[in-house]
Design goal:
This is MTA/SAH nucleosidase. The protein has 222 residues and is an alpha/beta fold. The protein folds into 2 domains: 139 residues, 3-Layer(aba) Sandwich (Rossmann fold), CATH 3.40.50.1000; 72 residues. Helices cover 47% and strands 14% of the residues. The protein has 10 helices and 8 strands. α1 packs across α4, α3 packs across α4 and α8 crosses α9. The radius of gyration is 17 Å and the shape is globular.
């Protein structure tokens, strides 16, 4: 593989062990929706929300709450953002093993590091700040901030804004694979999170089973 000038990372399921925050917050969201009379019945299975990681929020609620209207979806959005912000201080959330150390080593090698996430701006930056990795990134891009309609569009904007020609796109979902491929970049698929179906990473140039494998890949690239 060609050695990259920059590496672009997805957040959920790539850098951040999302379920350490999302699962307790997910149940809080539905508890509040029930209190407000916007939802009744049991909370949808956790597997549904986990399978939606990597999607835009409006797509997520259409899948989690397919029989509810936009009013409920928008309120769920508000609650999710508020409770995730609070939960990052309340819960013992985690990055994947050796994420911080690996990012620091890549920076020492002169690699420009970025985040590109389909999440909301406050959430994505909150995670990076809480886990003290935000200073390692030259840019933290989110669909929420830039109002992009796909990860392809978000990555194209990032590449253009920062004059990046040769990058690795690192992520765990099909949207990351598509974003790398359609922007002409190498795709590293993260097979350690286990979200979604096995076909999620079809088309990735390389699969890794632990985050720190990126160092060996970088060292072996030319």
């Amino acid at each position: 593989m060609k050695r990259p000038e920059a590496i672009i990372f997805d957040m959920d399921g790539t850098l951040f062990k999302t379920e350490t925050l999302l699962i307790p917050v997910y149940h809080q969201v539905f508890d509040q929706l029930r209190l407000e009379g916007l939802y009744s019945g049991e909370t949808p299975p956790e597997e549904i929300i986990l399978s939606c990681l990597g999607m835009l929020l409006d797509q997520i609620w259409k899948k989690v709450l397919p029989n509810h209207d936009e009013v409920v979806h928008l309120r769920a959005d508000e609650l999710l953002l508020q409770l995730e912000h609070e939960g990052l201080q309340e819960y013992a959330t985690e990055l994947y093993p050796r994420v911080a150390e690996t990012l620091m080593k890549l920076r020492e090698h002169g690699v420009r590091l970025f985040v590109a996430s389909n999440g909301l701006e406050l959430y994505v930056k909150d995670v990076a700040e809480t886990h003290k990795i935000i200073s390692l990134f030259e840019g933290v891009y989110s669909a929420g901030e830039h109002k992009t309609k796909s990860k392809v569009e978000l990555v194209r904007l990032l590449l253009d804004n920062h004059g990046v020609n040769n990058a690795w796109m690192v992520g765990d979902r099909s949207s990351d694979v598509e974003a790398g491929q359609k922007n002409g970049q190498t795709v590293i698929g993260c097979a350690y999170a286990g979200f979604g179906a096995g076909i999620e990473l079809d088309g990735a140039d390389v699969l890794i089973t632990s985050f720190d494998e990126l160092i060996q890949l970088y060292d072996e690239a030319f």
